[in-house]
Amino acid sequence: MIRLLKSRIGVALLSLAVVLALANRTGHAFAQEVETREAPPIEELRFHDFYRIPVGTKGLEISETLKLSSGRVMRIVGFMVQQEVATPGRFLLTPQPVQMSQHADGEADDLPAATVLVILDSSQQEWKVAHRRGLVALEGVLSVGREEAADGRVSWVRMQLPPDSLRSMNTFELAGYLHSQQHRH
Prior knowledge:
- The protein is of the alpha/beta class and about 180 residues long.
- It folds into two domains: about 1-35; about 45-180, CATH 2.40.50.140.
- Helices cover about 25% and strands about 25% of the residues.
- Strand 7 (about 135-150) and strand 8 (about 155-160) form a beta hairpin.
């Protein structure tokens, strides 16, 4: 009985192998084969790679690593800057947690030199991004060089996020966020 069962399994497997071999030769298959090209891996940029070290007599100088990253999709991990008033369509990312008090400090903020201005997709320019504690990983197109915004703030490094990077909050998330804003200590 066991021998008969083994031989039936062997015949079934052999039959399946023959069917698959014939299917491959004739161009028909059970599952469609799709040719996929793997996207190149996204490189990670670290904040300590932004400027040449040690700092020379000319002050901070943009590193070659940062210059070569301009125009490319990069990944960067950092902390969202906590602002009193969120700016629609953008937020700031830094290597360590920072809290800005725009009303009290005005232009005299404590942002580190290695700060990234993160810009939302053009379809999301009205959105205000809620502050998120802890490290966040972002992927987007990096641009490097001096750029002055309409409000007078100068940025040296910017990251343009793709439209699928963010989504709007659902009702429960919005309620939780608004609650947390009422009870800040």
